[in-house]
Amino acid sequence: MSKRSRTHVTCTVNGDEVDFLASDDTSLLDALRDELGLTGAKEGCGTGDCGACSVLVDGRVNCSCLMFAPEAEGTDIVTVEGIAEGDQLHPLQQTFLEGAALQCGICTPGFLVSAKALLDENPDPTETEIRYALAGNLCRCTGYDKIVRSVQEAAVQLRGATR
Amino acid sequence: MTVTEDRPSYKWVGTRPIRHDGYDKVVGKARFAADLNLPGQLHAAILRSPHGHARILSIDTSTAEAMPGVKAVVTAADFPALDVGNPEHDVAMNLMARDVVLYVGHALAAVAASTRAEAQAAAAAIEVEYELLPVVLSLDESMADGAPLVNDDNRTAFSGSDEPSNLATVTPLERGDVDGAFEAADLIVEREFDTAWVHQGYIEPHACVVDVGADGKADIWASSQGHFRVRSQTAAVLGWDTARVKVTPAEIGGGFGGKTTIYLEPVAARLSEKSGRPVKITMSRDEVLRATGPAPASKARIRIAATNDGELTAIDGWIGYAVGCTNDMAGFIGAMSVASYRFPNLKLEAVAALTNTPKSAAYRAPSAPQAAFAIESVIDEIAQLLEMDPIDLRLKNAVVEGDPTAMGSPHPRIGFVECLEAIRDSDHYRSPVPEGTARGVGSGFWFNIGEQSSATVNLNEDGTATVITGSPDIGGSRASMALMAAEELGIDVYRITPVVADTESVGFTDVTEGSRATFATGMAVVNACRELIDQLKTRAATILGVEADAVDWVDGAAVAEDKDPLPLADITAKAKSTGGPLTVTASLNAGGAGPSFAVHCCDVAVDEETGQVTVLRYTTAQDAGTAIHPSYVEGQMQGGTAQGIGWALNEEYVYDDDGTMLNASFLDYRVPVASDLPMIETIIVEVPNPAHPYGVRGVGETGIVPPMATIANAVSRATGARLTSLPMSPPKVLAVLDDR
């Protein structure tokens, strides 16, 4: 078996233009973690069922384990590492901390990304809308209660900030 | 909401600071097991059995070894054959099959190569010849007369017999006159129950990186519930001295009991030794479901006698656990789980038997949920038949301090009655049951354990402190350690850095199990702080020029008559001139872990057309003794409840006749998602544990015990049908509704 050819991929990740080489069957998740050293997105299943690898691609939530890295060509990607603005945590990050919305923390990056996508789209979601928006992210520690409440609190803060 | 007995007022204990390790976890910086990569690192893949039970006639690795990128291949021949009596025999056999594979997914070879794809391709090219053996998949098959042996090495524990057997344990318990009590009973309810295999379902798959140096020492980076156990098990499996192994704990992405044992580390170590390179192994979700964990499936028959005024006079029961391919204490532990009620007459037999399925692992209050599902369902049915309030019935029979446990020894101070009263008096229970729904209650408890812990507390030059322990932080324990240290030392919680150190940087600490970390490791932290305070007072006496016994420690400062208070930082600044560094290590084998009881209440709706059960409202009351960080106590209560709801309604292993799991993904093994659940209201009950300096009881496990019966009891009241088989999935519910 010879080494497979690799594609040169150029995209924007967390505001920085980056490039890397990836074979055709490399997932975006593996490229982020192994080529770019962004290990915030996690692999919990590799089959798009747990959401721990969630990233924003052109503003939409994607399971990065289900996307081939070459498909990222020309896209704008945001990972959990890109949610804070400088040393200022995003309100979701702050409310997750204050609301004890994480226990082990392995699912937290995916939840933050999915919740950010929700609040970017819908600044005043109902509890049910939050629960459905986050239904693609599995958490086994919290029972979701404190996650949902933290998203509600962040939504209040964000609405206050933009009013 | 918290129900609190009179207790001292604390400045830090019971507050809710942001956890110290939280910041790295919300910005993606926290390093979990799979996040570390070392220069020159190889990736490994494991070949697993496609058969449920087979003799390995030959393994030919020659093709694999010649494939591109392959640097090392190992099989059981690369590990010492441990005696059957060796405590780690089953762990060794499970992580690399020798002669026989015992379940689909059993590891039998591993390959290290330059890339994961190369390792996987080479593993697939290993040629194995098997002779198929009979597969035993259920408790009934395992216990049938003339059943084929699951595992020739198994002997029934405590039996004294040297005959191979499918039985793991048989635990009979008896007290009083059970036959007489049933003859005299006004009411007898008897039911049979069964529950499915379920997985702990931690989101982080098992992973490790191991680097064996030129000196032969293994440096292991892994996620586990106890890195000292990773060290001891790895050393035992490799036949090494313990001191050859260093384990650095990665952040752990969930364990729930499933990461109290090892699957990968010795394999990676041997591959690293053979290749001279660091080796990383990460499991796929498919491997996690097929080859790690699960909790035993179970069957039970429970018969309870009662008087017309609701006194439970006798219990007669049998409960069996299917524990997978090796011996396991599930049955023995399950026998203890009937200790919630007085039952003056009791006859119980708990058994565990082997099956050709993965070696089971602890799962949050292991064995108790299965037993509580059966017993709490029968008790609820008695309340229905007597037309008694189910909480009043429980209050009438609930154990209190001094009542016997199942094993006969007296309960210490416990808070079962207080939890029942908390639910009885809750907004939820006092509210009318909404139209179209029904309400159920259930209870449960877990004994908790103490075990060994160590803690080192270093006071730094500027008066900050470092608290070093060996208990991995699974859900906020670093914050709890810091809070207890802040309370003792009288300094701000953020002046304290809590650290979980590697096996060479802190004293021995047992694995985190039995809800022991905040209780036992917390006690070691408190002991170390108290010894430090003695030293601080001595140092202060020197600085102030008074006798040592004239100094008190008040609110973070040394206080002596006619002197200004001397704050901690002023003493640490003078450490050099008053005797040197201020550091104390405390270690202990903690006794007196107090049992934690919980009572749950839920409202459900049952769709009679589809059989779908929806949980609409849920409240849990649990005795935490003293909640050190209430947010994370609530989190344990909520998390255990959610897992219990999954166990009750969705989760089960589905096997085909050959023992192949048919639903080995999170798509098909469906754990609850956010849209499946309501908010989970919590009532922390605080009945302090007299054996802990702050009254702590472990809270990690109890929450998973009551939900199955709580939901089944609500379904019964919604439909008039008693669900006795878990999960209560729509097809099963529909079948029971059709039989009404």
Overview of this structure, please?
Chain A is 34% helix and 17% strand. Chain A has 5 helices and 5 strands, in the order E-E-H-E-E-E-H-H-H-H. Chain A has helices spanning 28-35, 91-98, 108-121, 127-133, 145-162; strands at 6-13, 16-23, 54-57, 60-63, 76-78. In chain A, strands 2-1-5-3-4 form a 5-stranded mixed β-sheet, with helices on both faces. The radius of gyration of chain A is 16 Å and the shape is globular. The termini of chain A are far apart. The mean pLDDT of chain A is 95. Helix content of chain B is 28%, strand content 24%. In chain B, the strands form 6 sheets. In chain B, strands 4-6-2-13-10-11-12 form a 7-stranded mixed β-sheet. A 5-stranded mixed β-sheet of chain B has the order 1-27-26-25-17, sandwiched between helices. In chain B, helix 15 links the parallel strand 19 (465-469) and strand 20. In chain B, helix 15 (477-489) packs parallel to helix 16 (517-544). The interface between A and B is large, with 60 and 60 residues.
Short précis:
By secondary structure, chain A is an alpha+beta fold. Helix content of chain A is 34%, strand content 17%. Chain A is built from five helices and five strands; from the N terminus they run E-E-H-E-E-E-H-H-H-H.
Counting DSSP E segments of at least 2 residues, the number of strands of chain B comes to 27
Q: What is the helix content of chain A? A: 25-40%
**Rg of chain A, nearest Å:** 16 Å
Largest sheet of chain A: 5 strands, mixed
Main beta sheet strand tally, sense and closure of chain B: 7 strands, mixed
Rounded mean pLDDT of chain B is: 96
What's the name of the CATH homologous superfamily of one domain in chain B? Aldehyde oxidase/xanthine dehydrogenase, molybdopterin binding domain
- Range of strand content of chain A: 15-25%
**Coarse structural class of chain A:** alpha+beta
Assembly state of the chains shown: heterodimer
